[in-house]
């Protein structure tokens, strides 16, 4: 046997360099590993300093517990750690690091120096470096305050092949900054400092342990708009707690760059988590767009395995189906409950500014003066001063009421709403369905199609409107979307709200309303199933056949009947009636794959919803269809009660609002 083919033990430096290939990919990897050690050490202030994107210098300093002199020689050794000591510790690990190989791997591909002090005396610090082929540690005295500093110089200086794969300084720093964001979002109670080439990039004080403090940290890292356009949630069930912020469907990104998910404080990228979130946004997000979120999942450490990958970016849940269903149902419900609200979605800074200036507001021609509502015909929508409506300020501009003038009395609003309902008691079942009048042939033609009957079905079974729901519960607030005042080019509805002006895409809004009602009617009861005259035979693997048998009940609930015709053959005998003409074999295969991978599948529901969406699109009011004011108001009220009414079935927004402050700014009022 030749000498080259004999088995030998690798020297420590070469072994560490091989291990570094898994752990140390670029400067951002080094920062992540060292900072996780600083967090585990109890640091409350962590400073990170870089030069040349981290390739020349990385310095991380913390004020944690430090390392004693007797432990320093082991700090740079492989598989040496203070965080676990037995298999029981590994199964219940709560620290970020536990493998004990990061510092050894980093020191093998750089010039690493570690200085630490476990005492309060600043003169009692010690320095350790690893030298030579055997990576022998050398410890010398070095003054240092309590805590630890790790200096990494000349990354990959001794592995030229790895160094060639590094990108430009700007690109490498971008990766480091992204790693910094993840770390800073994982611990709000720590103060952070990031400095690059002697310039401070981020300086974040420790945040208060409340929602407002957390939102300040997120706004500093991701921008204030992220907070303005997101929902806060905090839900708990079955030993799982999910809290954080999810972006509104209208606030999406072209790339998946603002997606942060933490499991017990550890940032992870997990296929099961990504699938659950993607499902929750399924029919409210525009195609090609990605949602934004900062979410925290807390659960018993013993039911999640973090020892899956050397970089600890992946985890494995003991009960993946439970976690998936909890994430999906929590986010799906939170997004479904987004409706227009009395506070509106206008910018908080968009309230009318004080002391703005401008000319006196002119009353439109033909509009009677205030107090003359009684002069309007009984069939015409009356003008109504809205609660919080902007009055003319002393300088002639618009400003919120600040003189203590009374709001419109509750009885006045109740009378208006009761009169509106009495005028059209059955508006919900008649006004938004296709008209049959002979004088509206154009509108009738626009509404003809396969969705016409579906739209009628959705309208026919709606419950009678409750007048109390048209306004706030106390009966003294105008509806969130206000009242319609005009139709623009047969496409948009213009409405006046308490805060300013609302613009509604009437087709998109009605499409969502019809779609949601059709979904409720289809999915509330058992789906109509249709037996196949000739069963479809599908060749599958043994694992897929086992999954089909195990999930027989799940298939049955969807109207699908599967039988095993052999160890690797399935027969499809029945499918949902809506999918009778679909290519059923790829649907079954995809569904089996989802059930095996994620524990649940929505393939059939997705295809059924796509058909319902098409039917709703054809059965909704079309452009150039003239609507009366009562019809427009009926549509606004329906939007306020419908889930996900902020987007149409394709993810496009259905309405927007401009506050008085935004309008004043547009026309330079008060400038």
Automatic annotation (TrEMBL):
UniProt keywords (A-Z) are: DNA damage, DNA repair, Endonuclease, Hydrolase, Nuclease
Q: Where is the MutL C-terminal dimerisation domain?
A: 484-627
Q: Which GO terms describe its cellular component?
A: mismatch repair complex
Q: NCBIfam families recorded for this chain?
A: mutl, PRK00095.1-2
Molecular function terms in GO for this entry?
ATP binding; ATP hydrolysis activity; ATP-dependent DNA damage sensor activity; endonuclease activity; mismatched DNA binding
Q: Which gene encodes it?
A: mutL
Protein name, as recorded: DNA mismatch repair protein MutL
Q: Which stretches of sequence are listed as region Disordered?
A: 339-374, 386-410, 434-462
Q: What does this protein do?
A: This protein is involved in the repair of mismatches in DNA. It is required for dam-dependent methyl-directed DNA mismatch repair. May act as a 'molecular matchmaker', a protein that promotes the formation of a stable complex between two or more DNA-binding proteins in an ATP-dependent manner without itself being part of a final effector complex.
């Amino acid at each position: 046997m030749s000498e080259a083919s004999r088995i030998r033990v690798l020297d420590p430096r070469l072994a560490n360099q091989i291990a570094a290939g898994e752990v140390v990919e670029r400067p951002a990897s080094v920062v992540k590993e060292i900072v996780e050690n600083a967090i585990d050490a109890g640091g409350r202030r962590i400073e990170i300093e870089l030069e040349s994107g981290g390739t020349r210098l990385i310095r991380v300093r913390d004020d944690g517990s430090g390392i004693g002199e007797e432990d320093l020689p082991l700090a740079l050794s492989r598989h040496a750690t203070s965080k676990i000591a037995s298999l029981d510790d590994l199964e219940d690990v709560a620290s970020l690091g536990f493998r004990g190989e990061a510092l050894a791997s980093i020191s093998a591909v750089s010039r690493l120096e570690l200085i630490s002090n476990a005492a309060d005396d600043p003169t009692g610090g010690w320095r350790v470096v690893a030298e030579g082929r055997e990576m022998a540690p050398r410890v010398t005295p070095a003054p240092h305050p309590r805590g630890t500093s790790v200096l990494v110089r000349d990354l990959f200086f001794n592995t030229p092949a790895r160094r060639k794969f590094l990108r430009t300084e700007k690109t490498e720093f971008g990766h480091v900054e992204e790693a910094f964001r993840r770390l800073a979002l994982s611990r709000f109670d720590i103060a952070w400092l990031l400095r690059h080439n002697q310039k401070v990039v981020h300086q974040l004080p420790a945040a208060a342990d409340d929602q407002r403090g957390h939102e300040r940290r997120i706004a500093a890292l991701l921008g204030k708009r992220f907070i303005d356009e997101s929902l806060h949630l905090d839900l708990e069930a079955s030993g799982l707690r999910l809290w954080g912020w999810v972006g509104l469907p209208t606030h999406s990104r072209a790339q998946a760059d603002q997606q942060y998910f933490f499991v017990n404080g550890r940032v992870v990228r997990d296929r099961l988590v990504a699938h659950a979130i993607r499902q929750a946004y399924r029919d409210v997000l525009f195609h090609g767009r990605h949602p934004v979120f900062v979410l925290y999942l807390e659960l018993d450490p013993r039911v999640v395995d973090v020892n899956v990958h050397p970089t600890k970016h992946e985890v494995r849940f003991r009960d993946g189906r439970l976690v998936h269903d909890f994430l999906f149902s929590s986010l799906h419900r939170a997004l479904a409950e987004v409706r227009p609200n009395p506070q509106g979605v206008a910018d908080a800074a968009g309230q009318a500014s004080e002391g703005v200036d401008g000319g006196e507001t002119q009353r439109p021609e033909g509009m009677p003066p205030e107090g003359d509502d009684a002069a309007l015909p009984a069939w015409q929508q009356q003008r109504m001063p809205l609660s919080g409506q902007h009055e003319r300020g002393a300088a002639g501009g618009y400003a919120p009421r600040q003189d203590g003038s009374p709001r419109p009395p509750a009885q006045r609003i109740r009378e208006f709403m009761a009169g509106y309902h009495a005028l059209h008691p059955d508006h919900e079942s008649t006004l938004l369905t296709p008209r049959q009048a002979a004088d509206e042939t154009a509108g009738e033609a626009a509404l003809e199609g396969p969705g016409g009957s579906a739209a009628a079905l959705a309208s026919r079974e709606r419950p009678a409107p409750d007048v109390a729901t048209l306004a706030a519960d106390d009966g003294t607030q105008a509806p969130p979307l206000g009242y319609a005042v005009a139709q623009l080019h047969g496409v948009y509805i213009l409405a006046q709200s308490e805060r300013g002006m609302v613009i509604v895409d009437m087709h998109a809004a009605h499409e969502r309303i019809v779609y949601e009602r059709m979904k409720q009617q289809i999915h509330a009861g058992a789906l109509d199933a249709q037996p196949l005259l000739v069963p479809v035979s599908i060749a599958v693997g043994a694992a897929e056949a086992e999954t089909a048998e195990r999930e027989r009940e799940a298939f049955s609930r969807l109207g699908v009947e599967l039988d095993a015709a052999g160890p690797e053959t399935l027969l499809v005998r029945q499918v949902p009636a809506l999918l009778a003409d679909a290519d059923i074999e790829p649907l079954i295969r995809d569904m089996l794959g989802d059930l095996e991978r994620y524990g649940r599948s929505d393939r059939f529901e997705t295809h059924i919803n796509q058909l319902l969406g098409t039917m709703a699109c054809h059965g909704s009011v079309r452009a150039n269809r003239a609507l009366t004011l009562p019809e427009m108001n009926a549509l606004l009220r329906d939007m306020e009660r419908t889930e996900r009414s902020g987007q149409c079935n394709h993810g496009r927004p259905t309405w927007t609002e401009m506050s008085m402050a935004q309008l004043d700014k547009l026309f330079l009022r008060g400038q």
